[in-house]
Write a structure and sequence with these properties.
Layout lengths: L8 H6 L33 H18 L15 E3 L4 H6 L9 H27 L7 H20 L18 H21 L3 H18 L2 H9 L6 E4 L12 H5 L6 E3 L29 E2 L6 E2 L48 E5 H15 L3 H14 L9 H15 L6 H10 L31 H6 L18
Antiparallel strand pairs: 1-3, 2-6, 4-5
Length: 482
Amino acid sequence: MGHRKIARWAGLLAVASMMMPLSACNEILEVDNPESIGVNELDDPALLDAQVAGVRAVFAEQMSGDEEAMTQAQAFLTDEQLTGLNWEDWQRYNQRIVNYTEGPSFQMWANLAEIVALGEQTLDRLDNLAPNPGSDRRVALVSALTGYGYVFVAETICQAVFSEPDDPSGNLLGPLQVMALAIPHFQRAVTVGAAASAANLVGLANVGLARAYLTLGDFANAISSASQVTPGFQFWIEYSDASDDLDNNLFNEVHGSNHTIGMSPWFLQGTYGDQDIIDTQTDPRIQHSSRFTTGHDQSTKLYKPYQGLRFSGYTGNTIAPSSAACPNCTGANEGNGDNGDVILFQRATNVLLADQVEALHHMNEAMMRQGGNDAAVNAFVNDRRAVGNEAAVTLTGDALFAELRRQRGRDLFMGGFRLGDLRRWKRDGVGDFFPSGAHPNPERPPATYGPWTCIPMPLEEYEGNPNLDKPVNPLDPPAGII
């Protein structure tokens, strides 16, 4: 899987001089000769907008603009997606067998760390060069995106180190320590966003706070932050079909004879291996092609996912026809995947970074974990079941929490949440819901799921930092880390 380059010249130059790991959009600025601009020349107020654009660009790339993005590669460790890639390291990764000496670890860590590094550098320059940083919407935006960078690292990477290039640290941070670093960035985005009358950025930061507090087990603050998010709030990460550098990479993974991603059996609305799965596709949030095909590896059965709630091409239609059991089902015509009633990912498909539905999920899980809120959680669960064309239920205790988790998986499908969710539930003792046992593709040895729940820092990070000790066995997950 190659690392695609996006037009982000200011960001890539800035990252050379900042706090960063050693290995480490409405408008994207393009120039003919970015090498002619030195790092020191970035300390110029006239270039602040360009540097903010750089942060937006690297964030969009890691959200869904790259093969290693949150909407794709991160999900390979979970029960969301199967990969049909013919590369052995990524096939093992999809079987929860990870090795810090192989490419996936470097690619995931480097991309995520770049968001944090570039965000911190840009905030430093905004603080020193912007006229009024306390009411500058650029500060609010970059603070929020940097906070999300820490969230992504905490949910994806096993352990992390952040330090200056000339002063490498040996302080390995666990996922909860990394997540805590997101809090002050989101808090600042709320404060500055309010001063700048940027309600959308305040909403973005409050959703981020709810997500971070939930992971940290601070349920009161998760509820408080989520309750500040206004009805109908949405914050989109935008893509364009004007250039391969600016498109949503998921398009490339579901088109052509070498397509690479498919629904896992856990989210498939039917029996894995069956063809013509139609009548059981009643939930519009997790629609997929009715027939499987084999793509890049010519062996994994791939049911291509259609766009769900987190994507701008979501239609709300179902392949299942209307029936007594599902009167609101629509009998969608799949067409060729691009011109039907349900749509594959397109080059210009935008992705939700945050919205009120997500915030409500954080709030209701926090309420469930606190206890004594069964009536309110039932009401929310039934609202979400209605979206999935399911009848209302009355549940309590473990059964209610299980249904809340089920609805969360469908509402947030492929939005970059699943790995963080599975890790949180396993770490907190809720349950181990990672896939285990036999992998669905028996033709890719060992075809058995391994123990990994996160991505380790790569070999390059250990070799570049004399204060870190390499793991003794690259096949063993870090002790005590979930």
